[in-house]
Amino acid sequence: MPQVDTSRFSNPLPVLATDIDSIEIETKDIYNGSFTIKNTGGGILEGKIISHCKWLIFNPTKFEGNNQTINYTFDSTCLTAGQSAKGFVYISSSGGEKCIPASAKLAKMSVTTAEGFAITNLHDFFQYANIHPAQARRLFVDSEFYMLLLAIGYEYMDIYESLHRDPNRERAMDNFFILSGLKGKTGVSILCAGQGVPSHDAKCDCIQIATGLFRKKPPVRKIEFIQNPGDRQTLHGHITIEKSDYGYVETQIALQENAAWLSFHQNKLYHARAGNSPAHATGGCCEVATSDLKQKKLPLRSITNEFKDNLTAMLQFSIDPTKITSSCAQELVTIGTETVVITYRRTAPAILRLNQAAYRYEDSGVIKVVNNTGKDMRVEVFCPESYVRFSARSYLVGEYGEIPFDIKLSAFLSAQLFFRKLPYMKTTVEIKATTPGKLFKKKLPIIVGEW
User: Fold this and answer.
1) Which of 1, 111, 187, 298 could form a disulfide with 244, with the two C-beta atoms 3.0–4.6 Å apart?
2) Domains of the chain
3) Are the beta carbons of 218 and 368 closer than 8 angstroms?
4) CA dihedral in degrees (128, 129, 133, 135; nearest 10)?
5) What one-character-per-residue DSSP string does 105-146 give?
6) pLDDT digits over 182-198, tens only?
7) pLDDT tens by residue, 398-423
8) Which residues, other chains included, contact 441 with Cβ-Cβ below 8 Å and sequence gap of 6+?
9) For 304, phi and psi rounded to 5 degrees?
């Protein structure tokens, strides 16, 4: 009988054993784990790993020894956030076989903020940014947010990395939301315009023009400043602007005539929301810098500013009357796509008018004098017709005065009117008003008839 060489066989035989009975994974990202294969029998254990889970990668896949560590990696790219998968891993060896069930769940990546917000997607982050803008800007450049974008498969990672490098985080984050389709570009509209410097808690009492819901063009706001001729005090005004949403604003102020008498102030916006100052601003709410607009050739001032919680802000401006040589000046100011017409008028030194349009043959009247010079005014009156009679030729008028006169036709003039059948007579009163160094002349027509 032939002899069998038993030197090749172990006695006792190898026996396969593992320190795990299953693989269970729940993670937000790539996961690494390991387990140990042991030989609880005799001889040398050898075998291989056969995975029926494409999302599990083993290293090594073959082994030889009585105490072997097997590493495995969960490939999160094989699943989408919230998805689960199940499978089996087989170990075939000289000491037997073993089937190890495996399951994996790719949990939704989330970022929990200090305020208790759980951010799992872009919509969550957008809402968080509207409530806590300063905190959202810090999170925007944090590595944790970067990992969240990777986990949700954000398709514009290269552009996000470019925005990540923008020192103006408010602008970068707003562009990120626009790119992600969460909002449109923030617009600016003119709410109203008014005179004076408002207090910090003043309500807007300026000019407002109602706008229709379906207007084709934005309305033109108008504001007028009137000043007496002797007054050279600087005048102040303000324009209230409103944002369309909580996004970043970067628009321009354009002056059509580049009027030297009109200037917009820097750093004069009230009730600014803390933490909204652009990174490039130099210590204030509003940054103004002159540049050129080649197409329209308008002088421009670039404006970026902060707004109140109700999305409004005030731009202040001043008018220097010493730089206005005429009695009237006007400037068209464009902010974004809307305009304000700012008009300056200097009143006449004296306003002279009759108390009524016509007089009877026997009547009385007055010449009303408004003195806008701020000084006493000498007013001299003269009428070539004798039927208009003044009690004096010269009068001294302060801010306001009335110069009385009487009308009485002589019998000769009454007869002339009767025979000529004239319905009325017409004459003029010549007025000469003087203040130190200035002379003002005017003629007022007087109509006399039988009404």
Assistant:
1) 187
2) 8-106 (2.60.40.10), 111-179 (no CATH), 188-200+218-346 (2.60.40), 350-449 (2.60.40.10)
3) no
4) 60
5) EEPPP-EE-TTS-EE-SHHHHHHHHHH-HHHHHHHHTSHHHH
6) 999 888 888 888 887 65
7) 999 999 999 998 888 877 777 777 77
8) 430, 431, 432, 433
9) -130, 130
